[in-house]
Fold this sequence. Notes:
This protein is an alpha/beta fold. It has helices spanning 2-14, 20-30, 38-44, 69-84, 105-115, 142-154, 165-177, 196-204, 253-263, 279-289, 323-329, 333-344, 348-354, 379-391, 395-409, 411-419, 421-428, 444-451, 471-484, 491-504, 511-516, 525-537, 545-569; strands at 56-59, 88-91, 122-124, 129-130, 158-161, 210-213, 222-227, 231-236, 243-245, 268-272, 295-299, 302-306, 309-312, 375-376, 507-508, 523-524. A four-stranded mixed sheet has the order 1-2-3-4, with helices on one face. α15 (395-409) runs antiparallel to α16 and α19 (471-484) runs antiparallel to α20 (491-504). The chain is elongated and about 110 Å long. It starts with a helix and ends with a helix. The protein binds one RNA strand through α7, β8, α9, β13 and α13.
Amino acid sequence: MRQKEKAMTMDANRQSRLTPAERDTLARRLFPHIAKRPEEYEEIYPPRELPQGAYVTRLGPSPTGFIHLGNLYGALADERLAHQSGGVFILRVEDTDNKREVPGAVDLIISSLAYFGVEFDEGATEGGDKGNYGPYRQRQRAELYQTFACHLVRQGRAYPCFCTEEELAEIRERQTAAKENPGYYGSWAKHRDLTMAEIEARLEAGEPFVIRLRSLGDPRKTFTVEDGIRGPLTMPENDQDFVLLKADGIPTYHFAHVIDDHFMRITHILRGEEWLATLPYHWELFQTLGFEPPVFCHTTVLMKMEGETKRKLSKRKDPELGLDYYRQLGYLPAAVRSYLMTVLNSNYEEWQLANPGRALTEFPFTTEKMGSSGALFDLDKLQNVSKDILAGLSAQEIYDFLIAWSASEAAEAHGLLAKDPDYVKRILNIGRGGENPRKDLIYGRQILEFIRFFFDEWFSREDEYPEQIPAGLAVTLLKEYASTYDCADDNGLWFDKVRELGVKHGFAPKPKDYKKNPEAYKGHVGDVSSLLRVALSGRRNSPDLWEIQQILGQERTKARLAQAVEELSKL
RNA sequence: GGCCCGGUGGUCAAGAGGUUAAGACACGGCCCUUUCAAGGCUGUAACACGGGUUCGAUUCCCGUCCGGGUCACCA
């Protein structure tokens, strides 16, 4: 009984001690410039007219000028959900922290995402804003937030707090010492119940202040929300009087998020799991403002391995995971997208296997199939996905990509690639098409490395000549080969000649013959072609030699053979 | 430390109260083969631990451990 009485007293204390009239005065005093009433915004930003089941999603980056794979991961999910449902995908710039803002960051974010195929329907653009629910940069929406802050003050659900950083630090110290939860709440919230006179005096003195929520939550109670990815989430109610408006009148993330997601008529909020901890803040705000909460979808964060442990991707520590990194290396945007999709939706890979050739955009994406445990970024897998995608493209398509990519990311190679398109395309076309296309192309930089020997400007010997062939014999073989080489020979005829040449000098016509009876031979035909391969490509491993020579042509083939003869003669 | 979220092979991951616990990447072997890249076949390898509930638990519950996240007038 006494318990109950005490609780009731406490609850009563939680209501504002100011009278309605005082609160009204305070609201006017705090927000003299606010003329609109909250309801007016409901008309300014009316519910959207969209087909049933359409998702309205948003990406809310802060303009810090850096965007990494993790951001793309989320953006891709937002984009798919919106576009596959006939909905809207919005870019909203969360620039409420002017300290962190980097000039030009917004354009960079837009272009980076666009490069990887993520386009917005509405929101901030490089020129300005697009859409009827703007502005889409939060600092430009200050009046909207202030209108609601004003409204909450009037209702006794928000109040000015004049605490300085030092005072807050001191509170925290005392809480830590007393082993209490840190924060501004309950009886620790010392400006929660300032009298009107005290407030007036401080305002008069020009003290800076923030606006805090007067929380009515009770952490001993819980609430449950249905997360789009994780299912039901049960969390304690919030009791923190967290900051709504900072001293400069700009909202914190928490306040801006609730107001914007309501008035932009967002249906699904995809965000990283780092927001889970503050979900109670948001929940109380949605309840307090009487807004219908959207569906929360808390994604897992992408991790990387550091030593023995996993760690969340960090923009500061992991510049190599920045989106630009993959662009510079020349990964195909489609490959990065496809890889990310395999991580994003567990059934994508199987779908892709079952539906070869169908576009990623045809895949039915669902939040339910998104994972909730931390996924490690897997470069091997990205490379494999990339190989598969490249293998499915035509030489022309790869060429077009290389040209566009090298123009900005590999300027030193661009000229040579552009000089003779047909030549480059013939190279890219080796082993392409047909049932079993070659899969040795992965990304731009790697492709350049792979094809460099076709260009005299870049050609150099990288591997040793086969050691089982003495230099003298090698010279003889190369000379004789050169004298009989004819570009017009077809693949079969050409190889017969190589075999004949080998046999003449004591090499087995087939590797099997050699294996059976190694004593009888100096080696086998493969050794002879190895010699030719090093002479022509500078490498022990290469695609089909006959094709390489077809592309080099009679003259340059012979020139390279001569070059090798010269080099070997010196040994 | 408090609170929150997670934990199936090395990696990404399916899965359901009873399965021989999928698949992909990586790795090994074999085949093919003039090298390589592929391709085909094949192999190694997993339900964190301890208690319950149950005829039966990897699956449900509790505890432990481990990992991550978060505790700002940053998002």
